[in-house]
Amino acid sequence: MLYDNVMRGIPTDAGLREMALATMNPLVDNGRHEEWQRRYRVVPRPSDEATDVPTRISFTWDTGVIRIAAITAATTVSERLIRIDKSLIDELVTRMTDPTQQDLMDESDDPTKRGQGLSRDLALLLIPREFRDVVQRGPYVIEVDRTMAHVHWEACSQFSGGANLPEPMGVAQLARQLRTTYSPAPAPPPHRSGRVRALVIGDPGDPDKNEDLPGAREEALAVHELLLKHHVDSVALIGAPDAEGRGPIPGIPPAGRLEVLRMLLRGGLDLVHYAGHGDFDEVQRDRAGWLFKGGLLTSAELARIDEVPSLVVANACLSARTAQTLAAGGSDADPRSEAALLPSLADEFFHLGVRNYIGTAWEVNDIGATLFAQTFYETLFSASYGEVVKTARRALYDQRAVYGPLWAAYQHYGDPTSRLRAVSPEAQDESEPA
Asked: Does residue 13 carry a pLDDT above 90?
């Protein structure tokens, strides 16, 4: 009976059937039925079995239609189309940008309202019914084009059953991959040996234009100290240079635009951390960059870099100047909107060949940003990027009563399975005092 079932399960292809018969007949003829059953028995994996293989879901915009497809560890879901007015998506994205935790998830004791916040609205609006079985547990890789990249997928509710509050997809581990129309830059050179090298840039905006961020200054200093603790060869450039070329922190050079560019051009960096303002180019509205006292640092200035870092981490919120302009006359669909800044910045670095970019979708709480950074860098050298970001998001999510929905602001573009090279024992020995 088992023999017949296996043969019926083979497609009607003469070649395949002949191969199967040639393999199984000797076992059956020799009476080795138990061995045959042990070697060729098919055991289906239970549908609710956890897996580390990410569920991949793509969302692309095509003139009034969202095209959605999914691939899981067990199956492929055919493409589905959602016809929707894009202004509805833009309005929801705007409401989900720096919201309150109550608006986002509604964790009230009333069972009729619990979990019925904006996170659930996003899931019901953009996840087709046929896909809800695959949006129950992570990890996830969300592939998006530039139009769908501004959606806050990290805050999207999972479709878990029971009375418990469904957790958002970002807490279950979610990374993004940006669909582009250009060929990626050549792969970075092989990993170097010795110390991990990092550049930390903090608060480079012009104080005379109200572009300085004391919280970004503190974050950069904390990140620099964390990296040194982990035996990383870290260089910190913090604060805008004054007339004499000094910075606001004694003993630490300022973050002048030319000096940062020189450091990047020299290469050899594994990691770059930026804390400050992001902005859009005044002439080319779709070009974004980091804001310094001397102007923007965009891909136009970085195009000469031969050796790009493996990882860029950027708490680059929209500059106050741009935010005020948008408040006075901007629209939800404006490409210079706060929700569009992060994917624009990530895309600029992908042009250069950077493979992983982690940033924030809105201006974040200073203390919460430090907690994320501390958790992130404490685990960075022992786990994949996906696990590291998940752990850092979870640290904020578990304290959402204090930090609100800050966990949802952090987005990772890149490969969640890749990781930064570990600090070598030789580098650790070198850092110890004699």
From this structure: no
The full length of the chain comes to 434
Beta partners for residue 68, in sequence order: 59, 80
Look up the pTM and report it. Answer: 0.80
Q: Taking Cα atoms as reference points, which of 177, 141, 128, 129 lies closest to residue 52?
A: 141
Cβ contacts of 426 within 8 Å, gap of 6 or more: 193, 194
How far apart are alpha carbons 215 and 207 in whole angstroms? Answer: 13
Spatial separation of the C-alpha atoms in residues 226 and 234, rounded to whole Å: 9
Query: Domains of the chain by range and CATH?
Result: 2-40 (no CATH), 55-178 (no CATH), 197-381+414-430 (3.40.50)
Q: Let me know the angle formed at the C-alpha of 287 by 388 and 58, rounded to the nearest 5 degrees.
A: 50
- Contact call for residues 422 and 366 (beta carbons, < 8 A): no
Contacts of 166 (CB under 8 A, 6+ apart): 115, 119, 120, 157, 158, 159, 160
Beta strands in 62-107 (DSSP E): 65-71, 76-83
The mean pLDDT value of the chain amounts to: 80
Beta strands in 135-287 (DSSP E): 140-144, 174-178, 197-202, 233-238, 271-280
Could you tell me whether strands 288-292 and 271-280 are parallel, antiparallel, or unpaired per DSSP bridges?
antiparallel
- As a whole number of angstroms, the distance between CA 100 and CA 405 comes to 6
Name which residue leads in pLDDT, 186 or 232.
Answer: 232
**Distance in angstroms between the alpha carbons of the first and the last residue of the chain:** 74
* DSSP H/E element including 357: strand 356-360
**pLDDT exceeds cutoff 70 at 241:** yes
| Cβ density class 341-371: b for 16+ within 10 Å, e for less | bbbbbbbbbbbbbbbbbbbbbbbbbbebbbb
Residue 240 near residue 255, CB atoms below 8 Å: yes
Provide the pLDDT confidence category of residue 319 given band limits of 50, 70 and 90.
low
